[in-house]
C-alpha cells in the first residue's frame, strides 16, 4: 500500500522531484511500476517540506487523489526546498479520517510516512497500546495503523533515540506482534533520512549533482538507482547512504 519519497540536497522545486519525473510520485498515484500490494494510490496524498531558517516543516495534505488537485500542481511549480517527504496513499481500510490519515505525519522537525500494512489492525496491536502514554493515544492524528506506528516511533524519538534506532526498534516490536506486517517506514528531520525496507520495495539515488533520494520505487530510469534489500535499515545524508541489515541493528 502507498508510495513515498524523501529527499535531502540542493534546493529543488517540489515539482522537480514529485511531478516532473516520468515515473514520479504524481504518476505513481495511478500507475506505480513496482508496487506489490494494491494498484491505485488515490486515497489521499501529502508533502512536507522545509523552508530556509525554519526547522519546522510545512505540510500540504488532501484526502483525494493528487492528480485532482490543481492547486498542488501550481504550488509544486514554485516552492523550492532542500528537504521533503511526500506520499500518495492507498488506504488499507476505509475510514472517516480524510486528510488527517494522509502522510506525512509530523512533530517538531520530524516528518514520517509508512508504506505497508498491519494485518488485523487494530486488535493485532492492542498489546502495544499499553506501552504508550494515554496522552499519546488520545492525540493520534488518525485512527489507522500508520498513525499508531508514528506514535510508537515518536515516543522513542522523544526518549532520545536516534532516527534509525527509533525505526529499527519499532519494526522489531511490531513484527514480533504481527509477523506478517509490512513495515517500510520513512523518517526525516530535514537534514538526514532514515528508512526501513520490510516487506515492500525501497530504492535510493545518490544524485551525481548532489543530494539523495529515498523512494518506494525509482522515479525515472537513471541507472544509478539502487534497490535496498528487504529487512534493511537505511540512513542517508546529502552525500552518504549507509545500509544495515535490521537483524544486526537490533542486536
TrEMBL record:
Keywords noted in UniProt: Glutamine amidotransferase, Hydrolase
Domain Glutamine amidotransferase type-2 positions = 2-251
Please give the InterPro entries that the UniProt record associates with this protein. EgtC, EgtC-like, EgtC_Actinobacteria, Gamma-glu_amide_hydrolase, GATase_2_dom, Ntn_hydrolases_N
Pfam families from the UniProt entry: GATase_4
From the record, what ranges are coiled-coil?
none
Top EC class for this record: hydrolase
SUPFAM superfamilies, A to Z: N-terminal nucleophile aminohydrolases (Ntn hydrolases) (SSF56235)
Question: What does UniProt give as the signal peptide span?
Answer: none
Might you give the EC number(s) for this enzyme?
A: 3.5.1.118
Reactions catalysed, semicolon-separated, are:
gamma-L-glutamyl-hercynylcysteine S-oxide + H2O = S-(hercyn-2-yl)-L-cysteine S-oxide + L-glutamate
Question: Which pathway is this protein engaged in?
Answer: Amino-acid biosynthesis; ergothioneine biosynthesis
Family annotation (PANTHER family): GAMMA-GLUTAMYL-HERCYNYLCYSTEINE SULFOXIDE HYDROLASE (PTHR43187:SF2), GLUTAMINE AMIDOTRANSFERASE DUG3-RELATED (PTHR43187)
Job description of the protein:
Catalyzes the hydrolysis of the gamma-glutamyl amide bond of hercynyl-gamma-L-glutamyl-L-cysteine sulfoxide to produce hercynylcysteine sulfoxide, a step in the biosynthesis pathway of ergothioneine.
Protein's name according to its UniProt entry: Gamma-glutamyl-hercynylcysteine sulfoxide hydrolase
Taxonomy, top ranks, is: Bacteria, Bacillati, Actinomycetota, Actinomycetes, Kitasatosporales
Gene (UniProt): egtC_2
Amino acid at each position: 500500500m502507498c508510495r513515498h519519497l524523501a529527499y535531502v540536497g540542493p534546493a529543488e522545486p517540489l515539482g522537480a522531484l514529485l511531478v516532473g519525473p516520468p515515473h514520479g510520485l504524481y504518476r505513481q498515484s495511478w500507475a506505480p511500476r513496482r508496487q506489490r500490494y494494491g494498484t491505485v494510490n488515490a486515497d489521499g496524498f501529502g508533502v512536507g517540506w522545509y523552508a530556509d531558517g525554519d526547522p519546522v516543516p510545512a505540510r500540504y495534505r488532501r484526502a483525494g487523489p493528487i492528480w485532482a488537485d490543481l492547486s498542488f500542481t501550481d504550488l509544486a511549480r514554485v516552492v523550492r526546498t532542500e528537504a521533503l517527504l511526500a506520499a500518495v496513499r492507498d488506504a488499507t481500510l476505509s475510514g472517516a479520517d480524510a486528510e488527517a490519515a494522509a502522510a506525512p505525519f509530523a512533530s517538531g522537525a520530524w516528518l514520517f510516512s509508512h508504506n505497508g500494512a498491519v494485518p488485523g489492525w487494530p486488535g493485532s496491536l492492542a498489546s502495544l497500546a499499553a506501552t504508550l502514554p494515554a496522552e499519546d493515544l488520545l492525540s493520534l492524528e488518525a485512527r489507522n495503523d500508520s498513525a499508531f506506528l508514528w506514535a510508537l516511533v515518536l515516543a522513542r524519538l522523544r526518549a532520545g533515540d536516534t532516527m534509525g534506532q527509533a525505526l529499527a526498534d519499532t519494526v522489531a516490536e511490531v513484527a514480533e506482534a504481527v509477523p506478517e506486517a509490512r513495515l517500510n517506514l520513512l523518517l526525516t528531520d530535514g537534514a538526514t533520512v532514515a528508512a526501513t525496507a520490510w516487506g515492500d520495495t525501497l530504492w535510493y539515488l545518490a544524485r551525481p549533482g548532489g543530494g539523495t533520494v529515498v523512494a518506494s520505487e525509482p522515479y525515472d530510469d537513471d541507472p544509478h538507482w539502487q534497490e535496498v534489500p528487504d529487512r534493511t535499515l537505511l540512513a542517508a545524508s546529502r552525500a552518504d547512504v549507509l545500509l544495515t541489515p535490521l537483524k544486526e541493528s537490533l542486536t
